[in-house]
Every structure is written in C-alpha cells, then in structure tokens.
Design brief:
The complex is a heterodimer of chains A (399) and B (355).
Chain A (H helix, E strand, L loop, with lengths): L6 E2 L10 H11 L10 H21 L6 E4 L2 H19 L5 E4 L5 H13 L3 E4 L10 H10 L3 E5 L13 H10 L4 E4 L11 H4 L3 E5 L10 E5 L25 H16 L1 H22 L3 E3 L11 E6 L4 H10 L2 E2 L15 H5 L4 H5 L1 E5 L6 H30 L1
Parallel strand pairs in A: 1-11, 3-4, 3-5, 5-6, 6-7
Antiparallel strand pairs in A: 2-8, 7-8, 9-10, 10-12
Helix pairs in contact in A: 1-8, 2-8, 3-4, 5-6, 9-13, 10-13
Chain B lengths: L1 E5 L4 H12 L3 E8 L17 H14 L3 E5 L1 H17 L6 H20 L4 E3 L4 E4 L2 E4 L8 H4 L4 H5 L1 E2 L7 H10 L21 H9 L4 E4 L5 E5 L26 E6 L4 E5 L5 E12 L9 E6 L6 E9 L2 E11 L6 E6 L6 E8 L2
Helix pairs in contact in B: 1-2, 1-7, 3-4
The chains are: A alpha/beta (399), B alpha/beta (355).
C-alpha cells in the first residue's frame, strides 16, 4: 500500500501513551521488586504501588482503599458485575436481578448474560433513547417494579456513539433503593470530569490505555461497604478482592497518565471538542445522506464522532480510509474480526443495514486540526466509492 | 495491479497471496465471514469459517505485510448458497454449494465490490489455471478445482487470478513452510463448510422437516416409508430403509426422486446409467456459444465422473449425448464441459443438469 502520514482517529480504541507515563513505567521496569515482599526492595516496590494508588484515588475522587488495580477494563467490568452479583445473592438469595442497558460494552453485556445462563440471574433491560441515552425515570420504574435487584450496571459514556449518561442522577436513584450501582467509566475518564465519591456509585471501572496509559492495566473503584466476591483467588492482594503479584510499573504508569489527562482535562477537552465539531460539521456539510449517531453537544464525549453513511458498507469505507492512512473503526475494536452490526445501534433503533454503514472517528490528546482536515479531504470520495461498491455487489447478486 | 486475495486461512489461499505479493502487485487480503455465528475453533477437517481460520488468515497477512480485513457476507451466503442448497434438496435435487458460492459470492458479490473499490482483480487459492481467458485444469489432477469454477462467465474470469494452479499441492505446502507460514501443515478442508457436523441429512431435516413418502421399486410396489426426499440422492445405496437386496439378489440404488409425490424409486445398478444429459442456464466460458455440436469431456461432479460426449445448444438448453454411460446423475448437479488439450483440458461450458 502506498504510504501516507498516518492520521490516527481511533482514540476510543486506544490512545497514544503520554510521554510522562512511558517514562514512569520504564523507570519502574528497570527495577526489581515484588510489592508483597517484606525486605527493602519489596518495600520500595510497595511504596511506588501505594503512591500510584493514592494519586489515582485523588484524581478520581476516591479513597486509596477504594482502588483495586486490575489487568484492564474487561477484568474490572467482570469483577464488578459478577463479584457484586455473587456477594448480593449470597447475602440475600432472592436478589438475582441485574438492571442494565442494551448499549453496554461486551465486557458488561456478556458478563451479565453469562450470569443469566449459569448463575440464575434475571435481567431487566432499561430502554435507551434513539441517541443511546438512559432515562432516570426508567431506572426508577425498574427499581420500583422489582424488589429482587442485586445490582445496577450502566456505563458512564458509550464507547461507540459517545453518549454521556446522567450517571449521578441514576446512581442517586439506585442508592435510594439501597441497590449497588456499577458504572463502566472507561470512555469517560480523561474526557469528562469523573468524581467517584460525588457520583454516588458503588463501583466504577477504569482502563489506563483510554487516557494515555498502557494497555493491560485498569482499576475497579469499589466502595468499602460494597461486598464483591473475587474472580481471582490467591495471595489476597488488593484487599482480598484481586489476587496476583501487583503490576507496579503498570499502576505507576496509569497514575502518571491519569495525572496528565485529568490535570489538563479542561483545556484538552475544550480543544478536542472543537476538533470534533469541526469534523462533524465538515462531514454533514460535504456528504449527502449521512447522519450523526448519538447525542449532540455537551451530552456527547468531546472526542467521539459516529456516523451512518446510508448505502455504504462500513467495512469498505474503513479499508478505503486505511489505504489513505486515515485510521478509524466500524465499531468497538473488540468485535473487529468477524463483523456484526453494532448492538448499540440496533438498540438505538437502527436497522441492521444502516448499522453496517457506520463509522466511528474518535479524537484524543494527540489529534490536530490537520488530522481532521486530512480526514475531511478523503471522506467524500471514499463514501462515494463505497456506495458504488455496495450497489455493484448487490446488483451482482441479483442477476 | 491492485489485487484482492480471498484468504480462507488455509494453505492454498495463503500461498496464492504470497505469490501475488512476490509478483509485485499491490495486495490486500480479505477473509469472508460466511457464518453469522462462527465457531471459535476449527473442528476436524471441515470448514474454513471459524474465528481460528480468520485468525490464521490474519496471521499470514501479517507475515506478508499486507493489509487484511474481514468482510461480512453471512447474509448473502445464507440466502444464495445455504437456502439454495436446502431448497434444491427439497425439490429432490443434488446441488453443489461450492459451485454456487463461486458463482454468487466469490466471483460475483465479492468481485463486484472489489472492482468498485478500485481493485483490478480477485485472486483465490483454487487449483485451476487461467491464461487469456482460457480456464484449464490444474497441473495437480487430484486437486483440480476447475469444475467448481466452470460456472464462471467470461466477464467474471476477466478479473480472476488463480496463482497456484500450476503447482502440485505437496509443493504448495513446501512453499508455505519455506515462507514461514504457520498454515503449511494445516489439514485440507473437506465436505460442506456450513455443516460442521458433516451430517447433511440432519442439517436438511432440521430445515425442511418431515415430509413422509414412499420408497418404491421400479414396478411401483411400496417397499418402505421415508421422512423426506431430501434424505436421498440418485445413486445412493445405504440408508434406504428397505429390507435387503432386490429379487435378483443384487443391491438396490436410488434411481429416481419425485419431490411432488414424495416418491423415492429404487432399482438395480443398470438403471442408474445415463446416456444423455440436459442442462439449463448454460454458460459458455469464452462468452460465445459454439455453432454446432462439439466434442468434449463431460464432468458431473467435483472429482471423477468424466466421460466423452457431444454437446449442442438447442433452444437455450445444453444437450449432451454421452459415448459412455454416467452412473447416478442427479438433477441439480452441475455439468462442466472440457475441450481436451495436451497443455491442460480447457473448460468450455457448464450448465445445471435438469435430467
């Protein structure tokens, strides 16, 4: 393929690491030390680990003892959903209901469905609006109608279409009914203000690589009064909820990345949001038969754009853009491989055909105006071509 | 040339892709997702459609340093190949789904999309040779797949490339190993990719249901009951549900299927012999129908079943007189006609057998 300067518009999949995080991580990698060891080397490792925990807690409005380090967002979501469900069911066997939404990430969705198939869970699906949002009134209704709820899980912001949920309002309602609520805040942290204590949540998932940290590190923020059965048994690290030798380098890098991302959040998000609106305006004004999925304005993540180009296969579009060096996604990267129409768009009421014609271009801390203009320069022709391809392919089959 | 290589994750299409890269083309690998619910791992010798196969194809593309994508053709495949397969059996016919997939998916829907996206050609790992529009048998006679490509039109062939037809399979495996492709030792796939269990009768039964009928002999005497004509193929000997051999002491075979009445007729081996074939939907590989009768080899299944014949187009149908009988030919099968050639027999036409 012809080489172009790469225009990386897939920050929702993963972000470039902040130099400060790389520096902090490599410095730790060069040292030896198991944070559980009792000797001097172990104490040094332990101290780094705890400093990272305190720093991350402070940045996210949590207490250090509420930070459970994990191996990433998927583990955090699984730990919260399964662990809290098991703990609640053990305490009150009639509590077997999980209230959640059909637009969750698969890490929540599949964990919930697994509990339904194997552990006797009942599921109440909250309806979502055509912008992907969940209404507090619907949550209240679900909690009034069911006295067997074990937990509520609603994401803070949607990873595909960028819609931000009214999470504090939702969590306050759950707290009113004395039901623990978990939120997958993986896309939110680093893009919008997130304060765990102020949110009234019981648990919240975070992943380092979505805000300039390394992949393979995450955290579950878990209130001290929320019981959670571990997924991983062993040495009893992370207050007995998550055993395993602590990943000191990962935790240190995550904290360093969070510091850069959250200290600079106001300025960076304002800048990224301007780029986002430039991209949205450019696409809507130069391409016919296209619409923006998800919420508008401040109810949308600053870095997210997600379009449906009618009459296109997203796969074709992605390939054409990739060939021009413009990198984006047809859905969440986890489903990349064998293509499926997005469950998020389907839940928002899209038909499968238009769900296939969708593309997410997501911006982040390294994005520039030049990136947006480069994408806008190639998109109209790519959409034209992808539409011709869809017509040709459909026509060929109907001969 | 910009070339899209259809990569199943098997050794053949992997080497095909590698050869296209070597030839200096601008190559992109595409794996066709043909099942909406793919299995995680490949099972036995069947299938090319699991996530493991997609992963194998992706890994080969990595090694070749070419872009790679998975394109979803599951709906199209389900309609054009699986539904067609089931409906054809329900009509008492014996279809070949690989032929249908080449005709409707790989060299139709996929190729049209590829060309519209700016590719000049679609390459596959089929064992066949193609030069200047002439489609010939592969050098490796045991692996030859020109039969399942015989339905392609001149226009479809114009944009097709078959990079491995000039090489015997064992050498393709050696080449894959030499190139460091992990799929070098991967077993050949057999059977029907969308029936991983290999149990075609159960697959059809689940979709068609029970449609009882009678098994009768050539005199019309009812010998047994059956659950549907889809459980039978002309020439079938086992699983007829009848007690023992015929009155002559010789085995009995399915000699006729009437889907409308649900009747399966059985008879002796001699009744299976066919001396003439009629085919619908004829395709002439050169794009031009011959003026008069043509001498040819006639092949009616993917491997074997080749006899001499004379073919002629009459009122839009391909009529073939055979010089030797073919045994057990069923409606729905594809006949492919070849012109004998010392440089490799050439495909000249194909049609769907009606009787």
């Amino acid at each position: 393929m012809t080489s172009h300067k790469t225009v990386y518009l897939d920050h929702a999949a993963t972000t470039p690491m902040h130099p400060a995080a790389i520096e902090a991580m490599t410095a730790v990698l060069a040292t030896v030390g198991n944070a559980s060891s009792l000797h001097g080397t172990g104490r040094v490792a332990r101290r780094r680990m705890e400093e990272a925990r305190e720093s991350l807690a402070q940045l996210l409005g949590a207490r250090p003892s509420e930070v459970i380090f994990t191996a990433g967002g998927t583990e955090s979501d699984n730990l919260a959903v399964k662990g809290i469900y098991w703990a609640r069911r053990d305490a009150e066997p009639q509590r077997r209901r999980i209230v959640t939404t059909p637009v969750e990430h698969h890490a929540v969705l599949d964990a919930v469905q697994w509990l339904a198939e194997h552990e006797g869970a009942e599921i109440t699906w909250l309806p979502v609006g055509d912008d992907g949002s969940v209404s507090p009134a619907d949550l209240r209704e679900a909690l009034q109608a069911n006295d067997d709820v074990a937990l509520v899980s609603i994401m803070w912001a949607n990873n595909e279409v960028g819609t931000i949920m009214p999470i504090s309002e939702l969590a306050t309602i759950a707290a009113e009914f004395d039901v623990p609520m978990h939120s997958d805040a993986i896309q939110a942290v680093g893009q919008i203000p997130v304060d765990f204590a102020a949110s009234a949540l019981s648990a919240m998932s975070v992943a380092a690589h979505k805000f300039g940290g390394p992949t393979g590190v995450g955290a579950l923020l878990l209130r001290r009064d929320t019981s959670c059965v571990p997924l991983l048994h062993g040495g009893g690290q992370e207050r007995d909820v998550r055993s395993g030798t602590p990943d000191v380098a990962g935790a240190v890098a995550m904290a360093a990345a969070a510091k850069v991302a959250i200290d600079g959040l106001a300025a960076n998000s304002a800048r990224v949001q301007q780029l986002r609106d430039r991209l949205i305006d450019g696409v809507l004004s130069t391409i016919d038969d296209v619409y923006l999925n998800g919420a508008a304005g401040d109810a949308r993540l600053p870095g997210n754009t997600h379009f449906t180009f009618r009459g296109c296969e997203g796969d074709s579009l992605l390939m054409l853009l990739d060939a021009k060096g413009v990198e984006c996604s047809t859905g969440s990267a986890c489903t990349a491989g064998v293509a499926q129409p997005s469950h998020v768009l389907l839940a928002m009421g899209a038909d499968p055909a238009s769900a296939r014609g969708s593309l997410r271009l997501s911006l982040g801390h390294t994005s520039t105006e030049a990136d947006v203009d480069a994408a806008l320069a190639v998109l109209p022709a790519a959409v034209d071509r992808a539409r011709q391809a869809a017509l040709a392919s459909a026509g060929a089959a109907e001969q | 040339m910009r070339v899209l290589v259809a990569m199943s994750g098997g050794v053949d299409s992997s080497v095909a892709a590698a050869r296209m890269v070597d030839a200096g083309h601008d190559v992109v690998g595409v794996h066709l997702a043909l099942s909406a619910a793919p299995g995680t791992l490949r099972t036995g010798s069947r299938g090319c459609c699991s996530k493991e196969d997609a992963g194998d194809a992706r890994r080969v593309a990595d090694v070749l340093d070419i872009p790679f994508y998975v394109w979803d053709f599951a709906d199209r495949f389900s309609e054009d190949v699986i539904d067609d397969f089931v409906e054809s059996y329900a009509r008492g016919e014996t279809p070949n789904p690989c032929v249908r997939c080449n005709e409707r998916i790989k060299f139709s829907a996929l190729a049209a999309r590829a060309l519209a996206l700016g590719f000049d050609a679609v390459a596959t790992g089929h064992y066949a040779r193609l030069t200047d529009g002439h489609l010939r048998r592969a050098v490796d006679a045991d692996k030859d797949q020109s039969y399942v490509l015989g339905v392609l039109t001149a226009e479809q062939l114009r944009h097709a490339v078959f990079p491995i037809g000039d090489t015997p399979k064992p050498q393709i495996r050696e080449e894959a190993a030499r190139r460091g492709l992990a799929v070098a030792e991967k077993p050949d796939s057999h059977d029907i990719c969308f029936i991983p269990s290999g149990d075609t009768r159960a697959f059809l039964g689940a979709r068609i249901g029970v449609r009882r009928g009678a098994v009768v002999d050539s005199g019309g005497t009812v010998l047994a009951e059956h659950d549907g004509v889809h459980g039978f193929t002309i020439g079938q000997r086992k699983g007829l549900g009848i007690a023992g051999p015929g009155p002559d002491g010789l085995p009995r075979y399915v000699t006729g299927i009437d889907a409308e009445t649900g009747t399966v007729r059985v008879g002796g081996k001699a009744e299976l012999d066919v001396w003439a074939l009629t085919g619908d939907r004829p395709v002439f590989t050169s794009g031009v129908a011959p003026d008069g009768p043509v001498e040819c080899d006639v092949q009616v299944r993917a491997h074997g079943g080749i006899v001499d014949g004379v073919a002629e187009l009459r009122e839009g149908r391909l009529m073939v007189d055979l010089r030797a009988p073919l045994r057990g030919v069923a409606p729905g099968q594809t006949m492919v006609l070849y012109r004998r050639d010392p440089d490799g027999d050439e495909v000249i036409a194909s049609a769907t057998i009606t009787r």
